[in-house]
Amino acid sequence: MRAALLHGYKQDFVVEEVADPEPGPGQVLVRIGGSGACHSDLHVRGGEMAALPFPPFPWTLGHENAGWVEALGPGATGFEPGEPVAVFGGWGCGLCRLCLGGEEQLCDVMRWGGLGTPGGYAEYLLVPSTRHLVRLTTLEPFEAAPLTDAGLTPYRAVKKVLDRLVPGTTVVTIGVGGLGHFGVQLLKTLSPAKVVAIDTLEAKRVLATELGADLVIDPLATDAAAEVVAFTGGDGAAAVLDFVGADSTLAVALGAVGRKGMVVVAGLAGGAVPFSFFATAGEAQLTTSMWGSRNELAEVIALAEQGRLHGHVERHPLTDINIVFERLQRGEVDGRAVLVP
Question: What pTM was estimated for this model as a whole?
């Protein structure tokens, strides 16, 4: 099969012929219909996540995957060849307390497809179990692929704050890229709160307005935190979802959050911010959010198939992977770029 291989940090991908994977006991082989180009893979390619114990080069990245069941290994049940599926990517051991509690994505990052095992920037993906598959009914695989991370990660983050978003409150999203454009939609669909979107790029602020944001802010042109506080009549935001996670965005988040509010960090930029009794609004909380569970992915797929969640998707052939990642690096992708073998 063809696969886009990364032979070293800060190098281009190379599309090469590699051996076809064969499903072993309990495993399933999925023919890729789309694999989302995720910003986190930029961090991997750039060497910023080199502290993780990645396998030796070359790697096949790609953790946002959907396609069709190609073949089932011995003992694998529940699906038939040809069925369209989305692939939950947070693979765990299946035996620890987190996995048994349905939180496999919190088990071991190095089991995930595209990090510890070959990912979906290829024609086929070997999945360790059919329990990681979610059936598709109306969505095409290239539409569903971004939902497995870009849709799932903000969904979990939004769920963490829903009980705070009562009528009359305000919620802030920082970053309206691959994750953030889903985050704005989810907040408008699932909560009565007013939604403020913050992004440095005009095209993404325009997109946020089109998706229903009540206020958009350019943090390069104004004090974004002060503008949020003013918009809320001095109360501050009930919740802030940071889909960037840089020093600067975390500072905005803690400046914008109100008393008893919550800041949820889902971005991987690696920033940090002082968090103290006197520097933070009264009883405000700061937490992270990591991907989502397999059942939460099923909920995201259901929302999309009901027409309540729409990804802004660009389709590109796998051979254009380096062009796609150059555009992603420059912030030129509105929504999600999906690579199709």
Answer: 0.95
Contact 171, 248 (CB under 8 A): no
CATH code of the domain covering residue 80: 3.90.180.10
List all residues 6 or more positions away from 289 whose beta carbon is below 8 Å from its beta carbon: 153, 156, 157, 160, 264, 265, 266
DSSP β-ladder status, 28-36 and 124-127: antiparallel
Instruction: Say if residue 103 is in the same domain as residue 213.
Output: no
Q: What is the pLDDT along the chain (341 residues), one digit of tens a residue?
A: 999 999 999 999 999 999 999 999 999 999 999 999 998 899 899 988 776 777 789 999 999 999 999 999 999 999 999 999 999 999 999 999 999 999 999 999 889 999 889 999 999 999 999 999 999 999 999 999 999 999 999 999 999 999 999 999 999 999 999 999 999 999 999 999 999 999 999 999 999 999 999 999 999 999 999 999 999 999 999 999 999 999 999 999 999 999 999 999 999 888 999 999 988 999 999 999 999 999 999 999 999 999 999 999 999 999 999 999 999 999 899 889 999 99
Kindly give, in sequence order, each residue whose CB lies less than 8 Å from that of residue 150, ignoring residues fewer than 6 positions away.
36, 38, 64, 178, 179, 182, 311, 336
Q: Is residue 302 domain-shared with residue 225, that is, in the same domain?
A: no
CB 292 within 8 A of CB 152: yes
Residue-range definition of the domain harbouring residue 256? 152-288
CA dist 277 and 295 (Å) reads 36
Which residues are bridge partners to 176 per DSSP?
Answer: none
Give one DSSP letter per residue of 210-265, joined into a string.
Answer: HTT-SEEE-TTTS-HHHHHHHHTTTS-EEEEEESS--HHHHHHHHHHEEEEEEEEE
CA–CA gap between residue 186 and residue 303 (Å, rounded) = 9
Q: Are 124 and 1 in contact (CB under 8 A)?
A: yes
Same domain membership, residue 273 and residue 157 = yes
> Can you name the residues that pair with 72 across neighbouring β-strands?
28
**What residue type is 96 in one-letter code?**
C
Residues 122 and 16 in one domain: yes
196 and 281 part of one domain: yes
Q: How many domains does the chain have?
A: 2
